[in-house]
Amino acid sequence: xxxxxxxxxxxxxxxxxxxxxxxxxxxxxxxxxxxxxxxxxxxxxxxxxxxxxxxxxxxxxxxxxxxxxxxxxxxxxxxxxxxxxxxxxxxxxxxxxxxxxxxxxxxxxxxxxxxxxxxxxxxxxxxxxxxxxxxxxxxxxxxxxxxxxxxxxxxxxxxxxxxxxxxxxxxxxxxxxxxxxxxxxxxxxxxxxxxxxxxxxxxxxxxxxxxxxxxxxxxxxxxxxxxxxxxxxxxxxxxxxxxxxxxxxxxxxxxxxxxxxxxxxxxxxxxxxxxxxxxxxxxxxxxxxxxxxxxxxxxxxxxxxxxxxxxxxxxxxxxxxxxxxxxxxxxxxxxxxxxxxxxxxxxxxxxxxxxxxxxxxxxxxxxxxxxxxxxxxxxxxxxxxxxxxxxxxxxxxxxxxxxxxxxxxxxx
Amino acid sequence: xxxxxxxxxxxxxxxxxxxxxxxxxxxxxxxxxxxxxxxxxxxxxxxxxxxxxxxxxxxxxxxxxxxxxxxxxxxxxxxxxxxxxxxxxxxxxxxxxxxxxxxxxxxxxxxxxxxxxxxxxxxxxxxxxxxxxxxxxxxxxxxxxxxxxxxxxxxxxxxxxxxxxxxxxxxxxxxxxxxxxxxxxxxxxxxxxxxxxxxxxxxxxxxxxxxxxxxxxxxxxxxxxxxxxxxxxxxxxxxxxxxx
Lengths: 412, 244
What we know:
Chain A is α+β, with helices and mostly antiparallel strands. Chain A contains 16 helices and twelve strands. Chain A has two domains: about 1-50 and about 260-410, no CATH class; about 60-225, no CATH class. Chain B has a 13-stranded antiparallel beta sheet.
């Protein structure tokens, strides 16, 4: 008890040293927490963007279509008034659904061609499921009739202005060339590079007519109350579909975003490495300061030994001191980190203005980056701060305590 | 009596028409037979005009039925080869020393940057099986009497173009001009024959110009410099090994 008291008194006695050491720990913790929050935020935003702009919460399509969906095939399509879809909506109380027909084409401006994906959307229901309208930069959203909406980047690339006619050249299911000429009524500037550069939206009926695929769509899309519902609802839909032994299957956003999630996972590994580097840097700072404080106090250690303290007791005093510094540093770090993360999650960072709106970080992001909460990170880093501080003190304290008291006192 | 004579005249007229009139399919078939090279060695060049740029590609082609081997000899593309066997097309790039099979959308790209797509160069199906042809007019074109024949894709047929209108020289059985349309009615491509030459009692187009009508200021001239009919083609010429 005496030793613990002495250690705590030491903390108060050397206020400056205690505060500086604790601040180094705090700084490391704040950097860790803010970085972690940004990583979590980026993940969440990229997933939400993907759901709002590309995948929706869940889709149903033909099982054979799924295998080749990247090629946007024109076979294995679904009827555009599938009875089972109504049954699913009724049984599971899903209100928002839409359907789309995808096909590959070349967009042509009279000088050059560029390969793109054309998406025939059901004008009345698409906005219930997808949030494209929020990203309308100029003009208006798609309406029925001969019109198209494309990404701003694609419009710039091809030199299209609103009101001009775009030409789409594509092949029908029989491999015969056909064209669509549609008035450009709107341009999009979304947080998804794929949409900005490669997507052309036209009314579903125009797409069906031009492809000779009346009454056919590629996939149905559903919006649920929240993304966490998608797994149980997908399972329920699949059990309904299995009862009917149909060749149609439901896929949730996680299954549909495998590439994005894989990219995020890859990103997570990189982020983990970054965090480990941050932690190591913080730990090195702590170790450095503890070593210095031990070296600075060699005379004190010599004196303690001369007074009859055992090596174990001296190490104990230093360990308790370091634990105190660690606790103080961690606590301050957690408080500042909490404020930082709070600001990040509520106000965010305007990434668009920093990078000129071209930021993708390899995954679809945003013009404004928000942080995310991960309570585990707070718990982990709090204890990590204390333990690192304690561990860092043991070796130099042992080294100092091993010294001959006379040599320790007169080491200078 | 007058009625009998009138009926007789009509009958004779119809009968003679059915005997002497040629059908659109026959004309197309004759044109195809005439222009179809069974076995040949052709030296040719492509002049690609894109805005103000002009590119020249020189090639030697060996043709045997529905197999063909094309090797480019101009400095920029020297060693680049194409091998066509039935509906398959492979390409060899000397720089990469690699053989690539072209398929899907790649076949719709312009061959070596020209206005001819790979698919255009590969068409080997009988046109009369893919299209319903009809003579829509007879007119003079390039000072030659021509049939103007329109072909509309047969239902279910897998043809690249929905409609084609072709001007065929009545006497020489060569297509002097051909327009290729999309299903929407938009003109996609136009080929005009500018020079024809007689080889062995057979007229053959030696200079034609292809224009991609969806792109302004581009055209590709295809010029045949020499044709050797029925040459000796060594065995294994059309194998994948011969590409490398």
